[in-house]
Design a protein that fits this description.
Chains A, B: Pfam families: LacI, Peripla_BP_4. Chains A, B: Keywords: DNA-binding, Transcription, Transcription regulation. Chains A, B: InterPro entries: HTH_LacI, Lambda_DNA-bd_dom_sf, Peripla_BP_I, SBP_2_dom. The structure is a homodimer. Chain A has about 350 residues and is of the alpha/beta class. Chain A has 3 domains: about 45 residues, no CATH class; about 140 residues, Rossmann fold, CATH 3.40.50; about 130 residues, Response regulator (Rossmann fold). The first copy, chain A, is built from 12 helices and 12 strands. A 6-stranded parallel beta sheet of chain A has the order 2-1-3-4-5-11, with helices on both faces. Chain A has a 6-stranded mixed beta sheet with strand order 7-6-8-9-10-12, with helices on both faces. In chain A, helix 9 links the parallel strand 6 and strand 7. In chain A, helix 5 packs parallel to helix 12 and helix 10 crosses helix 11. About 0% of the residues of chain A have low confidence. Chains A and B meet through helix 4, helix 5, strand 2 and helix 6 of A and helix 4, helix 5, strand 2 and helix 6 of B. The structure holds a DNA duplex (30 and 30 nucleotides).
DNA sequence: TAATTTTGCGCAACCGTTTGCACACCAGTT
DNA sequence: AACTGGTGTGCAAACGGTTGCGCAAAATTA
């Protein structure tokens, strides 16, 4: 039955007309007579003709595919972000080639390579936690394939990115705790390699200073964000000469580790504030009292939009220095309902 | 600077040799002299030559892309499954085109259409909850593009699929509850359109009968799997003339809704058993006492493997009836640690 | 030295579609 | 009778790479 797919040539041969006429007829070109158009279309649908996209992509040098590399889909932030990306891609007639780095810098490099050989029209990246060099993205500049980073952006210049401004969110969070009467506020921060860690720290400091409180750097401790790492940091916090009455944690997962640990020690009374606002919070009995919401869906949408704009932008004519899109999605503090 | 990418033709022109020689040199063809090879390769790397994959895909009629359509990445089952799919695809040199139906049958149809125009080499599908017709997958048969269903498989014949056998898992689950002394066991089941609902019911019945207990059909109630639907079903359960002392729920999410609801009524003492074994269970204070684990990663891997095998299988020569892969991944009951 | 094999390379077709250009035909205008 | 203008169609090149076949020069053999 179903042999090779029908081509435009076969239609031409059967109808004894040229392939160009068939092509134009199918594309409703104005210079083709109505009767010819009808004949062609009728036969085409009878033969279940489907244009060979590979030929078309080749001809136009476009694939209508955007690549997305992100660390971990099981993290709620990313699975939500990908929905935003997908929705925009869908709307603008692109499809999404997906790959997870699992926070492994080596794998990320290989994935970038793969995206290159697939010749995606553009690339969306949220870099892995362990990535410390960024040359593997350079290739894309040479190939004139736009790259947009989102959320986890590399600390380098001349890139397009979309990220949330955690400084303002953190400022709000610390302010919120201060207003609640807390004076000793700890922070479990992430690795210094992450831009986001600096922003959190800055937000924290600014909130303290603007409330005329002195900033104690020993109350900010970096963690590797694992459960074991979190417990270690918590031990330090709890044995600190100024034991915090409230703690800002790097994200909801860290908050959950920390809360579970304090509860296992039968410690109560420490307020936690966190980032991300995970849906699982709704299922928990003991949760952060507030979270900084980062709007992953919105970030994903925005990043995809920028990427597709870049793809369709007329080439940088003058070869001049082009502008870089640096979009910041404001983060806001969401106070959780008390249970 | 970076103009159009280098092509094989330019290399040929510069070196004053033919394109075929360049092509063969780059592919280490045996009939090319060593010196020519060296010259070609040297120049190629100097010019940052990258073969145009679109041309190659066109030539071979292959894209090395597999499409994946699934309902919802934020469901842990699917985000884990996609990792399995991706890992296999990666290993076997394919990439993954992803799309979420968000459990919307209409959107699913459009996505199938898109996958078709992208001419994926194969398709992996977990159908949406609301899908009730399946003709949109027929096109792929005509185009000779293999389709493998996983987890949520449609109730039709002549398809390839990978799914877990929930009957055995359910049997184990009910047996487990019976051994614990429960005699009145409720079940919150899913819509009857899902194959999985039937399997659960069958497992339930078999466990009861094999323990010489009579099966009470009114203790199995179907739900739409939303929180509101779950609460409604729970109300029915709790007002049942035989109030269950244990309940088997369709999945962990339903279990969480149900548990939360019973706790809001200050009801204790009902044991819940569920499916999926979500990681968030670890963060919960009140959880199902056991879950049927369905091994999403394994299912994803298996499905991808089968799909790629099908893609690379020599065409069905005789046009004869080909075999369909129906793989069942056994599910097992995992008893949760008491907190 | 002539015949034969091997080595190294080029020619040209091909994959399916689009598109600039030419051309033939017919009608209406000078 | 020559000219203009539209209408409908076909020719052929182009996109970038692969590959069967042929052919010349060099190396081997008789």
């Amino acid at each position: 039955m179903s042999d090779k797919p029908t081509t435009i040539k076969e239609i031409a041969k059967i109808l004894k007309i040229s392939v160009s006429t068939v092509s134009r007829a199918l594309n409703d070109h104005s210079s083709i007579g109505l009767t010819t158009k009808m004949r062609v279309k009728k036969l085409a649908s009878e033969l279940n003709y489907e244009p060979n996209q590979k030929a078309i992509q080749f001809l136009h040098g476009k694939s209508f595919i955007i690549g997305v590399i992100l660390p971990e889909l099981s993290e709620s932030f990313f699975s939500t972000a990908i929905s935003g990306i997908e929705d925009i891609a869908y709307k603008r007639n692109y499809t999404v080639l997906l790959a997870q780095s699992h926070d492994d810098a080596e794998r990320e490099k290989l994935l970038v390579e793969k995206m290159k050989t697939q010749r995606v029209d553009g690339l969306l990246v949220s870099v892995s936690k362990t990535t410390s060099t960024y040359e593997h993205f350079e290739i894309f500049k040479r190939l004139n394939i736009p790259v947009v980073f989102f959320d986890r952006i590399p600390p380098i210049k001349d890139i397009h990115y979309v990220a949330s401004n955690l400084e303002t969110g953190t400022y709000e969070a610390v302010n919120f705790l201060l207003k609640k009467g807390h004076r000793t506020i700890g922070m479990i921060n992430g690795p210094n390699t992450l831009v986001a860690s600096h922003e959190r720290k800055e937000g924290y400091i600014k909130a303290m200073l603007s409330n005329r409180l002195k900033f104690d750097p020993t109350l900010i401790i970096n963690s590797d964000l694992t459960e074991a790492g979190t417990i270690e940091v918590m031990d330090n916090m709890l044995n600190h000469r100024r034991k915090p009455t409230a703690i800002v944690t790097f994200n909801d997962y860290v908050a959950l580790f920390a809360i579970r640990y304090t509860r296992s020690l039968n410690l109560n009374g420490i307020d936690f504030v966190s980032y991300a606002n995970l849906p699982i919070i709704n299922y928990m009995d003991y949760t952060p009292i507030a979270s900084v919401e980062q709007f992953p869906y919105k970030q994903g949408k925005k990043a995809a939009d920028i990427l597709i704009d870049l793809i369709n932008k007329p080439k940088n004519e003058s070869g001049a220095d082009q502008a870089y899109f640096n979009v910041v999605v404001e983060s806001v503090l969401v106070v959780n309902d008390p249970k």
